Amino acid sequence: MINTKKLYSYFIILFFALILASCGSRKYTVRSDTKAAKAADAMANLKSKSLYKFITDWTGVKYRFGGLDKSGIDCSGFTFLLEKEIYGVSLPRVSRDQANFARKKSYGALDEGDLVFFSFGGGNVDHVGVYLNNGFFVHASTNRGVVVDDLNLPAYQKALVKTGTVN
Predict the structure, then answer these.
(1) What is the count of structural domains for the chain?
(2) 8 lies in a domain?
């Protein structure tokens, strides 16, 4: 004779074991409309493989005002090094001077390697980045170091004061 209480207990244990096992087998995917996925797409769509390598080598390097190496770099230093190494262009060292050096170019006509200038302080240019494609740019962020960011974010759109080219 089968003990129904014992059989019932086995079914309960089996049921919970199956539930726990199914929780661990869920496939996690990155949604293609996330900020990270879009930034990855911008990097994947770069025409210049040397630019891709340069950015990946510098991504995550912390911000340091006046810095010019991988122990810390500021925005104009990053742009200065990128433009020199990738495009052979010698820019001034300071973002305000880089803005004066760049020839104005409309936002809609930006190409890979063009410059984007910001004024977060409400006056002169105080930040610079390098345009990539599809509304993304790379820069040395004061909070996050060297990163690829979405130029269409409201904070950047509000502070954007000039777009230009040096190539």
Answers:
(1) 1
(2) no
Please report whether residue 137 resides in a domain. yes
pLDDT in tens, the chain (167 residues): 556 666 566 556 655 554 545 444 444 444 556 788 888 889 999 999 999 999 999 999 999 999 999 999 999 999 999 999 999 999 999 999 999 999 999 999 999 999 999 999 888 999 999 999 999 999 999 999 999 999 999 999 999 999 999 97
Range of the domain at 131: 32-165
Decide if 127 is catalytic: yes
The pTM of the whole model exceeds 0.70: yes
31 classed as catalytic: no
User: Of residues 39, 42, 75, 125, which has the active-site annotation?
Assistant: 75
Select which of 127, 140, 151, 156 is catalytic.
Answer: 127
**What are the respective helix, strand and coil percentages of the chain, to the nearest 5?**
40, 20, 35
CATH code of the domain containing 103: 3.90.1720.10
117 and 160 Cβ atoms separated by less than 8 Å: yes
Catalytic residue among 55, 125, 139, 148: 139
Residue type at 40 in one-letter notation:
A
Query: Is residue 140 within a helix (H) or strand (E), and if so which, with residue range?
Result: strand 136-141
Non-local CB neighbours of 13 within 8 Å, separated by 6+ positions: none
In a domain, 91, yes or no: yes
Position 19 in a domain: no
